[in-house]
Specification:
single chain, 268 residues, mainly alpha, 72% helix, 0% strand
């Protein structure tokens, strides 16, 4: 078996996680900016400035070096946010997600929700958003490439991805999604799976838990679609709801393992 590249075999830390995720989002972000034109560049500039300012402010309050995970959050947000949303609404939503979904807990890795999902959920809840989906082939291919990189790096769990796809296929075969949804898979769905549902901070961390987490996310996605949600809102709220259950899923897996080992020891 060929060993992994040296860069991927070194121990993980927050900076490496941020760097690899940044590499994965660059292609989808570029495709989104090309599709949206100057509005996409303006949204990216605003998001990066806000991410830097909020992280610097909290770093100063806590008297420790700033973390730069907010840059990745800003890029994911800009890639998924509809181009028709005014900049001030984007700024308010992203600020809420950065502070309440990340920084207030102490920074990346200390919270339990994806800050990008929190930002998008706040936007969809608070403002009238025309959540048009991204359908062009370039964006979908870029999203797939980013997801493949994260799987190879071990950041995105392949168990989670397979569980999600199986659940969506099984549920959609029994309850077809509304006609307003695009033909699957589209870029919005892939990006939501890779960067929101598959966020390692929010997702389950046990192997069995990742299967359950993926199944649950896929089932919730189809359920939300039948409740009248468009593709973006369905992905965002499926990511948030599943993340809330992720600690319980992992704890259940741990309890099951402990009980199984205890029974094994009693029979030795």
């Amino acid at each position: 078996m060929t060993p992994p590249p040296p860069f991927l075999s070194r121990p993980w830390d927050g900076n490496r996680l941020t760097l690899v995720t940044l590499m994965a989002i660059l292609a989808p972000l570029t495709a989104s900016i090309v599709a949206h034109g100057p509005a996409g560049l303006a949204a990216l500039a605003l998001a990066l400035v806000l991410a830097a300012l909020w992280h610097l402010a909290f770093a100063k309050l806590r008297k420790r070096p700033p973390e730069w995970g907010g840059i990745v959050t800003a890029m994911i947000f800009v890639t998924l946010v509809p181009a028709t949303v005014p900049l001030w609404q984007q700024g308010v939503a992203l600020s809420f997600g950065l502070v309440m979904g990340d920084l207030i807990f102490g920074g990346r890795g200390r919270g339990f929700l994806s800050p990008a999902a929190v930002s998008l959920a706040f936007l969809l809840f608070s403002f009238p958003v025309d959540a048009a989906h991204t359908t062009d082939t370039a964006s979908a291919l870029a999203a797939l490439a980013g997801g493949a990189l994260l799987v190879i790096a071990g950041i995105l769990s392949w168990r989670l991805v397979i569980g999600f796809c199986v659940a969506v296929a099984a549920c959609a075969s029994q309850w077809p999604v509304p006609m307003i949804w695009p033909a699957w898979p589209c870029a919005t769905l892939i990006l939501g799976l890779v960067f929101l549902i598959g966020d390692p901070i929010a997702a389950a961390c046990t192997n069995a838990g990742r299967w359950i987490y993926g199944f649950l996310a896929g089932g919730l996605l189809v359920l939300l679609a039948h409740a009248g949600g468009d593709i973006l809102s369905s992905v965002v709220f499926a990511a948030l709801l599943t993340a809330i259950f992720a600690p319980l899923i992992d704890q259940g897996v741990i309890w099951a393992n402990v009980r199984r080992r205890a029974r094994r020891l009693r029979h030795v």
